[in-house]
């Protein structure tokens, strides 16, 4: 019974120690911290810019779907059905900003660095692998040689 547990626990340990699982855990932690930065940028920069044309709180933008619509002092719907389209716009802006920052500040520089590293490495000058046509020609020649038999110059007639 203990061998089975060791095997399961050993497999679980191997799973956790894979590079991609550790990388994923680091990415989740960094992503959570990064979310706070992006939310601060949206609330502190984007919302005031949008507020120049309306309210600084995008969550206040709503449309009455089924009326009459009324809200209390806390902004909660007391009557009617509201569509909170402002919160969707805010979440979309947050997503776009996050995607842009990740791409332009993380992925693009990493790709450029990897391209430079690949250009610095010497090209491998090993033998080129044969093409499909060359392999088929070799197979054909081998089959012809087998049909001829050793020491014969002609192909035997089919039976």
Notes on the structure:
It is a single chain. With 159 residues, this protein is mainly alpha-helical. The chain is built from four helices and two strands; from the N terminus they run H-H-E-E-H-H. The chain has a two-stranded antiparallel ribbon with strand order 1-2. Helix 2 crosses helix 3. The chain starts with a helix and ends in an 11-residue tail after the last helix. The relative contact order is 0.06. The model has no long low-confidence stretch (mean pLDDT 79).
Q: Could you say which overall geometry the principal axes of the C-alpha atoms support? A: elongated
Strand segment tally: 2
**Distance separating the two termini:** 64 Å
Give the number of helices: 4
Specify the structural class.
Answer: mainly alpha
Q: Helix fraction? A: 55-70%
Rg estimate, integer Å: 33 Å
